[in-house]
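Q: How would the structure tokens look for this protein?
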Amino acid sequence: MSPTPAKQKTGHSQNSVAWTEAFPASIVLVSGPENYLGARAIDLIRRKVRERQPDTDTIHLNASAYSAGQLEMHASPSLFGDAKLIEVAQLDQMNDDFLTDALRYVDEPASDVVVVLRHGGGNRGKKLLDAIRKSGAPIIDCQPLKKDADKSAFVAAEFRQARRRADPEAIRALVSAVGSQLADLAAACQQLSSDVEGTITAEAVEKYYGGRVEATAFKVADAALAGRGGQALSMARHALATGVDPVPLVAALAMKVRTVGKVIQANGSTVQLAKDLGMAPWQIEQARRDGRSWTPEGVVRSIQVLAEADAQVKGGGKDPVYAVERAITVISLANRT
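A: Here is the predicted structure in token form.
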């Protein structure tokens, strides 16, 4: 098996490859701090290598505990001419021996060998990273997905890959319920794809994940912002009594209030506001619905009490439960002003 040749002498942007499109090449750099995407990219390369040649020999090296000459030794042709896949971890902690050998290797990579290099971020080995970019080798940038819109796109892609249809409301509910860890989101998509027949709906997500901490927090926040103080307090007390940490409750309230504050006096279309504020269109629409009976003064008052509650639940006060309940009460009453 001959690895797909890297593009030669191209610019950095042309080197970039989405993790979902990762492919074998003489050298592949998987870079960035999002370990889950990095692992998925490497798994995809490994699978494509083995599809071409099932008996490929796989070698694992650690750049931080590397001994001089290992890379050249493992990349050298074997007696039987077997193809090789060399996976090198912890480039962000590489020692000097690895840096020296890898710089030499990038100039003259071996044939019939795929070398996958995993760098978790930072400036360690910058000279090597620059040399890889200059060589035209494919670079897979694995950055954390911080925006809900990006996480929703990730979830939608997972369902498409599983050949399952999911309602937009179900995707949004899953992101809210499961949280920010991509591994958790992927596992939830896999479970729903396996267990739910037909279209995956928000009701199905609620059935499987409605009890998660994040889902509880956002339900409390939704009730408080809608002015349903009694309901919000009841849900919050139940959550706290069953072991839910007060921090995510306050965080959910703060996120909802800040979003309402951004949109209640903003003009423009949903699409334009979403672009200007770095939010998804559905978030703008929901915030506008939440903020119909809100005033700027109510937002300011709520943000102030949330700042106090945040300090209380993070160790600055003796009664974090009271701080959460006071914040919920102020927010639910601010809706009526």
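The first strand starts at residue 27 and ends at 31.

DSSP finds 16 helices and five strands in the chain.

Upvote if useful.
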